[in-house]
Amino acid sequence: MPESLFICPACGAALERGPRVFRCANGHCFDIAKEGYVNLLPANRRHSSMPGDDREMVNARTSFLNGGWYAPLRDRLCDAAAGWKAEHPILLDAGCGEGYYTAALCDAVAEKSGRVCGIDLSKAAVRRAAKRCPQAEIAVSSVYHMPLADHSVDILVNCFSPMAEEEFRRVLKPDGLFLYVVPGPGHLWELKKILYDSPYENELREIKYAGFQALPEIPLKFQFRLLHREDIMALFHMTPYTWKTPKDGADRLAEIRELEVTAEFRILCFQRGGKEQGSH
User: Fold this and answer.
1) Domains plus CATH for the chain?
2) CA torsion, points 27, 33, 38, 41, in degrees to nearest 10?
3) What is the rounded distance in angstroms from the CA atom of residue 176 to the CA atom of residue 196?
4) Which residues neighbour 134 within 8 Å (Cβ) at sequence distance 6 or greater?
5) Residue 246 pLDDT > 50
6) Whole-angstrom distance, CA of residue 69 vs CA of residue 139
7) The whole model's pTM is what?
């Protein structure tokens, strides 16, 4: 059986992937679901019966991203990954969601015979990701306890997912690349103006992490027009605003039939190692 990029969450030994199970030398086995993913989240690390994004949010994100509205972000991430110096790179998509970016990243590193794995806490999202990315290894797991060996990853991508600084530092190889996508100041400004009486821009600040050397940031800003109410609501329901918006704001949005939206991202780029910097 071929050796997996994942390690056993029970004992830390290497996993081998068979037709139906992942198995380690110590006899721990993990079934491969019919969709192609494996659940590597130990029961004692589940904080609910269905951790991670629920099916409604996953469906909304899938619908919106399949519309191609965030294709510029996808393409910029792929360019950064494909241009990295590592040969035969191992790429981890930490918080891969339904696999929209993961699938494109697989293609981006394919010319270098790279390998890709993705993890997410949401089983609903991972099901989608495994179907979309059959060439990748996809697992249910927490970014705070990742089933990967120390210094085993050349490129780590985190797109709007929780920041697990210590774990990211652990799994990245010396000189590995960390691509961290966060919202820019004006991200979804037009949507926020409808939802909130007093909207404010996202804070623009320098971000530093211990053990990572900052590389030049990749800024990205573009606009698109949503012409259908279904697309507007899919955008709304895939964001945290769906939980935090007052009822009157949600009611205002429900009346909107067309919306021009600004997307603004910061792709923060770091190299593992280099001068130690204090966390903020």
Assistant:
1) 51-272 (3.40.50.150)
2) -90
3) 40
4) 36
5) yes
6) 26
7) 0.93
